[in-house]
Amino acid sequence: MRNIALSVMTLFILTACSQKQEPQIIAPEGYQLVWHDEFNEGTTLGADWIHEVKPSGWVNHELQNYVDGEYNGQRVTELSDGKLKIHCFKDGDKIYSGRVYAHRNEGWLYGYFEASIKLPTGLGTWPAFWMMPVKGEGRWPVCGEIDIMEEVGFHPDYVHSTIHCEDYNHVKGTQRGESKLYPTAEGAFHTYACEWTPEQLQFFVDGELLFTFQNEGNGHSSWPYHYAFYPILNLAFGGDWGGQQGVDESALPLTMEVDYIRVFQKK
Hints:
Layout: H1 2-18, E1 31-37, E2 49-51, E3 64-66, E4 70-71, E5 74-75, E6 77-80, E7 83-91, E8 94-97, E9 99-102, E10 111-118, E11 125-133, E12 145-150, E13 158-164, E14 176-181, E15 189-196, E16 200-205, E17 208-214, E18 229-237, H2 239-242, E19 254-266
Parallel strand pairs: 3-8
Antiparallel strand pairs: 1-19, 2-9, 4-5, 6-7, 7-8, 7-19, 9-18, 10-15, 10-19, 11-12, 11-18, 12-13, 13-14, 15-16, 16-17
């Protein structure tokens, strides 16, 4: 009888696991889900994703080396507990981290882009959820950039949403954006989103509007947001902004966690 009972219990567990349900996803009004990753399957990112591979100093004088998946037996990205975990760690005298692109070669033109993210803590951290054009016109910033969420460790829990284009960028001192304190951004999950239409870009934290950038109708120099962009998730360390007030390498290893990423477009 004991063996039969164990067999029944085993069958019940296997059946329950095989019938694992996707979470109920509620689309914003007027939108429908076109792509998502809930990070519930497997231990590594699927075919929708590409890892960046670049050495330290490649951009913004950042300290991390971006590698593809694993270095010296340590993974920069992994799936566990239903989350994407982007790890930043030191091995020898080098720092490694992950930067990943979703649908790099196709992207989406317009939509509602959303991710649930828990940010790490530490001086020098620079996590981000942002977007770049698949085939932009001109070099940065002319091609455009959409920063849905950025945060730096020396200014903990302040979330920044910004845009970059030819007319409005930090090089000229004309960058457009907003920031606000969200006391548990480091250490707790929050939802970061951008609604992108031909008329405007709106940025939200937990459903609260943080920043609006309007299409002024002045052409590409102020509105390069007329072609497809793709989402990016990364954890940088140091650099022009992240390292502005120094870095604390003793804080390594660090992890940025992503519960899900979703893309909706109008019906």
